[in-house]
Amino acid sequence: MSSEARKLYTKVWKQQNKDRVKQHEVNHRLKIKQGPQEVRDNITEFQKNYYQENKSKISNQMRERHLKIKYNLTSDQYVEMVYHQNNCCAICGNVETCVDKLGDIRPLCVDHNHTTGEVRELLCNDCNALLGFAKENLEVLENAIHYLQKHND
User: Fold this and answer.
1) In the 8-state DSSP scheme, what is residue 123?
2) pLDDT for the residue numbered 32
3) pLDDT value of residue 35
4) Contacts of 136 (CB under 8 A, 6+ apart)
5) Are 67 and 75 in contact (CB under 8 A)?
6) Is 123 exposed, middle or buried (0-12, 13-18, 19+ CB in 10 A)?
7) pLDDT, position 34
8) What confidence score (pLDDT) does residue 49 get?
């Protein structure tokens, strides 16, 4: 459609839809009058309500995105790993007992090599923290074992 034809079409449409054009202008002026802060507040309120109504769905979507981006794992691959480990930690052999802020048992942590990024196995939160605090340094972990053996009565 040429620019002249487009202008003619727009002019005719506006004449035929005067009420809609008028309402659009009123809404536009109202938005400007409200100012950016009120518009942001309305959007923020909508987002809060949406989150409250869809917490579990959003949480699952975030978990799936995290698994894919950080470890290149699909949720099916993660579930398969949980199944093969009988839902137990690869180090202590216990099921996860740590609770998240929603009151649910946290999923097992994906352990990976921080140098290569290769996924190893699944760990409970405590064992994952143990490796993290020791910075995966074998000497530190061996010293901790010797320390515990020395002071174990």
Assistant:
1) E
2) 62
3) 66
4) 114
5) yes
6) buried
7) 66
8) 85
Residue 104 and residue 141 in contact, taking contact as beta carbons nearer than 8 Å: no
Task: Report the DSSP beta bridge partners of residue 109.
Answer: 123
Residues of the chain with pLDDT under 50: none
**For 54-100, where are the alpha helices, taking DSSP H only?**
55-71, 75-84
Give me the pLDDT at residue 26, please. 79
How far does CA 15 lie from the centroid of its chain? 49
Helix residue ranges, H only, the chain? 3-16, 18-53, 55-71, 75-84, 125-133, 138-150
Q: What is the pTM of this model?
A: 0.63
Q: With the CA atoms of 72, 76, 80 and 83 taken in that order, what torsion angle do they form, in degrees rounded to the nearest 10?
A: 130
- Report the run of H or E that residue 120 belongs to, with start and end: strand 119-123
Helix 55-71 vs helix 18-53: crossing angle, to nearest 10: 80
pLDDT of residue 80: 95
Q: Which residues pair with 99 in a beta bridge?
A: 105
Write down the residue that tokens 């869809």 correspond to.
54
Burial class (CB in 10 A: 0-12, 13-18, 19+), 139: exposed
